[in-house]
User: Which sequence fits this backbone?
């Protein structure tokens, strides 16, 4: 097991996230294929149960103390889902691979440095995970850091409830969508 | 609806506009099929339709018109940008903003309209044998387009975000100037990037495409050109397929559209990808190479005064003080501009997370961002990127960064910070994952010494993709001839930014319009 993971970590540089997951799959195939949660959760186009659980855990840490955020977690998740749904098969796969890497038990610990359940992670755990990825020598993990934070920030600050607290009055009312 | 939606009005008058995701009527054989409706395709469509040719325009994006534009960032990014505005280079290190809608990038660009710099034209003429690439031959074409799209130096006061460039450069004795824009009756709203809701921007959507449609052109949107049907050295038609509702892939009905001539105008990345998918002849393995981005690095600055860069013409002041390639060739030239400051994109740019990001965002209204767009393609070892196909046929761009480019990033971050401090900024921050705001030029210099200059640490982006099907007089060193025709395919033309042999060194829309106007006019004379 630990041997497989060591290979996984070493091969990141060469094979990318998809390759790493393939390697992991070879070692833990049965468990991998038993995973049933591969479909988007009802009400979402892209995000799956495990993605929502992970994002729900990390979003408050990524957004910070914005006073309006607490009541709008679902708005933000819906915006993330919308951004992914309209991107491209490639971007959708990249993000799905990223979420798998982060939430799949065999890979989560070694690549994120956090071995517990994301739903009970403390802000300090999440802080450490983000720092580890931000400062990683592995470009793929830095890509993961940037992709994750950008997606969350774009989604939240693209939502009207976020605007008043940052002094953005929004688009002129004449042109706003009334749908 | 504050202004008439001229496109929808035209459709009610009987323009032939079809949604490719729905069943199509029987279509005749066309004289010319134009693939792409942006700066290249739109310009060519007007010229060829006015010449009396029977043309079809195919666009993979959907049709969005002024009554759909609500200045909503997420709506615009998801509906009108390539890959929902999440497009990046292959390794994810450079974000790429490119349009994907009727009118292409011209529908969502920031309206800056510069003529091709003379120093760029000289390289194209001398090194690539494009004999008309000089000021004398091109001036009439620039003038024609400037008149057609009402390009004029911006007459109103720049917003405070742009004014940082003017103020800082004046303090430092560096050059700056006002940006010419393609607008008529602009409301100075600031939402060019989400589609102009008042049809002031003279994009292809409200200028050349309406003229073409009035002159019996057929437009099919939400329809991807998957492959050219090639037999020998001729293109016989275009295999097209309807897009799905989210525009992520073409999974609808297939057809083969037939034409005597085909013009590829899907823009850089997409045009080389179409030719790669079609296995177009490429005897010297040049297709998709020398693709350029004007890679952009940025600095943010906080002021004590209101900047409110989310309102007002997004780009109105620039500086070319560092835009010539220096003789020692140790760095690239770079043009200085600012981006619009709407919160979704700014939050992503300001980086970090948690309270650090939140503190930065609380200052949105007092924040300026400056950008340096690097003039790639002029140094021997900065030969741009390579367009490749993914296993599903989608395109991606592998774009390596070289030492001279990192050197340029560092220098540009320093010069932009100096301008911001000189304009009165209290704090400046290079957009880099390990950087925070610093309060003096001395502290900035020290910070820039400490930072690592690597992909996915420096925040890099691009809004200008050029090259990949470069023109040239030597078939061994070019994909297309100086007249835009494919070197090997007798009836296939490339009329978009992918024909440029280097980057432009300025926002490219006017270069694309002018070159395509010339090439399409020459073609229309041949075909008429």
Assistant:
């Amino acid at each position: 097991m630990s041997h497989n993971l060591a290979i996984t970590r070493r091969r990141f540089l060469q094979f990318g996230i998809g390759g790493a997951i393939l390697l992991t799959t070879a070692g833990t195939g049965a468990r991998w294929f038993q995973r049933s949660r591969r479909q988007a959760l009802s009400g979402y186009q892209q995000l799956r149960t495990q993605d929502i659980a992970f994002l729900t855990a990390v979003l408050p840490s990524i957004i910070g103390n914005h006073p309006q955020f607490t009541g709008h977690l679902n708005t933000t998740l819906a915006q993330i889902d919308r951004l992914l749904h309209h991107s491209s098969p490639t971007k959708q796969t990249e993000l799905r691979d990223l979420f798998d890497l982060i939430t799949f038990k065999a890979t989560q610990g070694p690549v994120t440095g956090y071995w517990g359940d994301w739903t009970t992670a403390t802000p300090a755990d999440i802080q450490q995970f983000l720092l580890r990825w931000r400062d990683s020598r592995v470009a793929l993990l830095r890509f993961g850091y940037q992709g994750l934070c950008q997606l969350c920030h774009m989604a939240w600050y693209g939502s009207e409830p976020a605007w008043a607290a940052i002094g953005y009055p929004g688009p002129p009312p004449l042109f706003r969508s009334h749908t | 609806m504050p202004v008439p939606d001229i496109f929808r009005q035209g459709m009610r008058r009987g323009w032939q506009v079809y949604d490719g995701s729905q069943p199509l009527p029987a279509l005749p054989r066309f004289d010319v099929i134009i693939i792409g409706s942006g700066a290249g395709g739109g310009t060519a469509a007007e010229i060829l339709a006015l010449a009396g040719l029977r043309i079809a325009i195919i666009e993979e994006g959907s049709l969005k018109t002024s009554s759909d534009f609500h200045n909503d960032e997420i709506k615009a990014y998801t509906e009108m940008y390539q890959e929902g505005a999440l497009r990046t280079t292959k390794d994810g290190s450079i974000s790429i903003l490119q349009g994907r809608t009727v009118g292409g990038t011209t529908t969502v660009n920031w309206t800056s309209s510069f003529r091709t710099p003379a120093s760029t034209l000289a390289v194209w003429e001398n090194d690539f044998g494009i004999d008309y690439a000089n000021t004398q031959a091109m001036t009439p074409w620039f003038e024609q387009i400037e008149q057609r799209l009402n390009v004029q130096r911006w007459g109103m006061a720049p917003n405070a975000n742009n004014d940082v460039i003017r103020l800082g450069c004046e303090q430092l004795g560096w050059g700056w100037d006002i940006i010419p824009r393609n607008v008529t009756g602009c409301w100075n709203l600031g939402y060019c990037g989400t589609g102009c809701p008042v049809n002031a921007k003279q994009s292809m959507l409200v200028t050349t495409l309406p003229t073409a449609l009035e002159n019996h052109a057929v437009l099919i949107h939400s329809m991807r050109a998957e492959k050219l049907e090639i037999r020998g050295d001729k293109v016989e038609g275009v295999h097209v397929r309807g897009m799905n509702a989210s525009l992520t892939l073409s999974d609808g009905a297939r057809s083969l559209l037939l034409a005597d001539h085909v013009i590829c105008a899907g823009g850089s990345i997409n045009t080389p990808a179409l030719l790669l998918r079609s296995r177009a002849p490429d005897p010297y393995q040049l297709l998709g190479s020398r693709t350029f981005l004007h890679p952009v690095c940025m600095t943010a600055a906080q002021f004590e005064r209101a900047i409110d860069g989310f309102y007002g013409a997004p780009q109105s002041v620039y500086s070319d003080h560092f835009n010539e390639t220096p003789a020692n060739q140790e760095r690239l030239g770079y043009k200085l501009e600012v981006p619009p400051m709407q919160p979704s994109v700014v939050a992503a740019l300001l980086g970090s997370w948690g309270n650090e990001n939140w503190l930065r965002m609380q200052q949105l209204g007092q924040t300026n961002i400056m950008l340096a767009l690097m003039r790639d393609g002029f140094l021997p070892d900065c030969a741009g990127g390579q367009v490749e196909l993914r296993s599903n046929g989608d395109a991606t761009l592998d774009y390596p960064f070289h030492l001279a480019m990192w050197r340029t990033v560092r220098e540009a971050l320093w010069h932009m910070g100096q301008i911001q401090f000189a304009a009165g900024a209290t704090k400046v921050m290079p957009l880099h994952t390990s950087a925070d705001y610093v309060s003096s030029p001395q502290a900035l210099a020290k910070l820039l010494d400490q930072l690592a200059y690597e992909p996915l640490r420096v925040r890099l982006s691009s809004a200008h993709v050029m090259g990949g099907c470069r023109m040239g007089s030597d078939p061994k060193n070019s994909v297309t001839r100086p007249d835009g025709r494919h070197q090997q395919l007798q009836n296939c033309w490339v009329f978009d930014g992918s024909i440029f042999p280097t980057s432009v060194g300025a926002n490219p829309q006017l270069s694309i319009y002018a070159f395509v106007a010339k090439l399409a006019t020459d073609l229309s004379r041949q075909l008429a």
Notes: Residues 44-166 of chain A form one domain. Chain A touches chain B through 52 residues (CB under 8 Å). Confidence is low (pLDDT under 50) at residues 1-15, 21-34 of chain A. The two ends of chain A are 53 Å apart (CA to CA).
